[in-house]
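Sequence design from tokenized structure. All designs in this work follow the same two-part layout: the structure record, then the generated sequence. An example of the structure record is given first.
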């Protein structure tokens, strides 16, 4: 795997290096040693799958607070998504900045989202599916959300929003000076 840094510290685009031959291909999607060598302390606690039927669906922006703040590795296996990390770390030079990547089953890339960042995505094709690995289990008590249209963050979603949960639509704008 190749770990490409983004303008936000700790957010990486992970590019697999597939082995191809006459049978097809093989690629590593996670390797504890490679993550450790890249100084990304990821110990998988939970694996989640999200399937969205309709193009334009937005999910997020979600994060968890301490003591169960979570790191995520997001991969799209079917369809295509615009995947976004938002820096909510108060002492970060990129506080309230966002970084988005197109993830799909063909490019095989993943996005690593560190502790202190919110995560969201928009589907760019019908029937899109992502898998994400987290280093903490889901905790409803520690779950938080930021409105996907937060004026301070100003994400440029590539498609018209066609589907969004009431919970995400009604999430508050980010308050305070960071996590």
């Amino acid at each position: 795997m190749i770990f490409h840094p983004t303008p936000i510290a700790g957010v990486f685009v992970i590019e697999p290096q597939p082995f191809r031959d006459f049978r097809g291909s093989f690629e590593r999607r996670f390797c504890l040693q490679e993550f450790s060598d890249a100084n990304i302390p990821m110990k998988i606690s939970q694996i989640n799958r999200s399937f969205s039927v309709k193009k334009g669906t937005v999910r997020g922006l979600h994060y968890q607070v301490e003591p169960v703040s979570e790191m995520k590795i997001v991969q799209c296996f079917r369809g295509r998504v615009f995947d976004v990390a938002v820096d909510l770390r108060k002492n970060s030079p990129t506080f309230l900045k966002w970084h988005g990547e197109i993830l799909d089953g063909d490019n095989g890339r993943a996005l690593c989202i560190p502790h202190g960042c919110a995560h969201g995505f928009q589907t760019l094709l019908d029937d899109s599916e992502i898998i994400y690995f987290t280093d903490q289990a889901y905790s409803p008590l520690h779950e938080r959300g930021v409105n996907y249209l937060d004026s301070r963050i100003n994400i440029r979603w590539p498609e018209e929003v066609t589907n969004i949960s009431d919970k995400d639509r009604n999430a508050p704008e980010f308050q305070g000076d960071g996590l």
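The radius of gyration is 16 Å. We note this feature because it recurs in several other targets discussed in the main text.
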